[in-house]
Amino acid sequence: MSTWENFETNAIRTQTERSGQREHSVPIYATSSFVFNDAEQARALFANEEEGNIYSRFSNPNNDEFIEKLCLLEGVEDGMAMASGMAAMFVSMAAFLNQGDHLLICRSVFGSTHQITTQLLPRWGITHTYVDIHKPEDWEKGIGKNTKMIFLETPSNPGLDIIDLEFVGKLAKRHNLLLNVDNCFATPYLQNPAKYGADIVTHSATKFIDGQGRVIGGAVLGSKECIEKVRFFSRHTGPAMSPFNGWILSKSLETLAVRMEKHCENALHLARHLENHNEVLSVRYPFLPSHPNYKIAKKQMRLGGGMVSFELQGGIERGRKFLNSMKMISFSANLGDTRSIATHPASTTHSKLSVEERASVGITDGLIRISVGLENIQDIIDDIEQAIESSR
Ligand SMILES: Cc1ncc(COP(=O)(O)O)c(C=O)c1O
């Protein structure tokens, strides 16, 4: 396949080879298996002497196209599509960590990543240490003899904390550790962790990559050497993406750049508006100068992202009333959609964490997270304003 200089062109023009039907848009390869021309080809494919499809649990043209694009956009060599973001997170750890290994991980990770770390990995003898992202010196202190991997998420969900990728990338290299970055909130349009030394880049493609709230998907990306391990693990454990989802997500990447520009423009506008609101206690947005990691965000992100979180005066009760008063903005557990979505992390995605655990990652009872959609910004602001008014 050819490659181009620019993000948008790679996202649009990277396509599976045209079939004999001369289609312009790539069809869905809804097939569980592929036929062998003869016994010799079957043998060579299974022996990895010939490249090609065998069975859709291993590979499929739609998923391969999606991954080929993502690799170009992230600047990495290889990858594998996964059935969900969480399949990607789990595989990206399980393919590398062995009994007795230690994982160094930022405290502000997505709720299910926290469950994998604290409930599942210990069952296989894999320990962890959480690092408070407000104490960067703790990264180095947390490294032990058996530390194998650093895992982090930036910007984090839902606190929108920013971790310095250059700093952690250098640290990982110095200590010969694998660096694994969940790049879900930024997408490859805003940030490329591999540029700072990440060995593995993971995605929930369900969010901004899909962009329209239609399918669940994920990806693990990295060097050929790393993805060999991921491929072995997933080929035999089966978290493969469906070809239909691969087809949808590859099409979605075609519009990622224009969508992210608009998500970020609307989000910055909303963040500035809320910052001046006398009933809003605080606002978090990576490209607001008031964000504690503003300088780092500016260094490593092209734009500030599509997520804004804020704390309304009045705590949990006010937060509840606010969510019940919204007329247009959806109250849903997803993000990264064309439609703006509000969530209340304390009672939903992060409800499994204790109050203390939530507090340590900046999730207060009244915190509201907005995934800023692509509606007209005035309609988004009007709905938030009327919900603030009605929730008094
Ligand atoms: C940062 C982050 N990582 C991973 C996931 C999990 O992705 P999925 O829901 O596609 O399994 C999410 C879901 O919200 C997320 O926000």
Give your account of this protein's structure.
By secondary structure, this protein is an alpha/beta fold. The chain folds into 2 domains: 247 residues, Aspartate Aminotransferase, domain 2 (3-Layer(aba) Sandwich), CATH 3.40.640.10; 134 residues, Aspartate Aminotransferase, domain 1 (Alpha-Beta Complex). It contains 15 helices and 12 strands. Strands 1-7-6-5-4-2-3 form a 7-stranded mixed beta sheet, with helices on both faces. A 5-stranded mixed beta sheet has the order 8-9-12-11-10. Strand 5, helix 8 and strand 6 form a beta-alpha-beta unit. Helix 3 runs parallel beside helix 10. It is globular, with a radius of gyration of 21 Å. The model has no long low-confidence stretch (mean pLDDT 95). The structure holds pyridoxal-5'-phosphate (PLP). Pyridoxal-5'-phosphate binds next to helix 4. The site of pyridoxal-5'-phosphate (PLP) has 14 residues, from helix 4.
The unique ligands bound to this protein are: pyridoxal-5'-phosphate
* Cα-based radius of gyration, to the nearest Å: 21 Å
CATH architecture of the largest domain: 3-Layer(aba) Sandwich
Number of domains: 2
The tally of beta strands, per DSSP, is: 12
Can you give the helix content as a percent range? Answer: 25-40%
Strand share of the residues? Answer: 5-15%
Give the tags.
alpha/beta, 392 residues, Aspartate Aminotransferase, domain 2, five-stranded mixed beta sheet, 12 strands, binds pyridoxal-5'-phosphate, Aspartate Aminotransferase, domain 1
